[in-house]
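Troubleshooting log. The previous structure file for this entry was overwritten by mistake, so regenerating from the original sequence record. Sequence copied from the archived sheet and checked twice against the printout by T.R.
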Amino acid sequence: MSLEAINTWAQLIAAGGVIGSLFYLGLQIRQNTRSMRAIVVDSLAQSMADLVRPMAQDVAVMRAAQQRRRMGSLLQC
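Regenerated output below.
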């Protein structure tokens, strides 16, 4: 085998390695994106729960919210 043929094969193998690593990088980015979306959704759900929890624990606030809801539905009719 000549030096030129060895060089050609080495470049071909290197190009295959680059393409393989790009596919792996794409898979890793996809997995990271899914993970980050799940974290954001969980954070939003926790924020909503933190916002609603004090109202749910206070009877006076719950009664006021129910009365407001009833008044709103009466106005829509």
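Residues 3-76 form one domain. Archived copy saved in two places this time.
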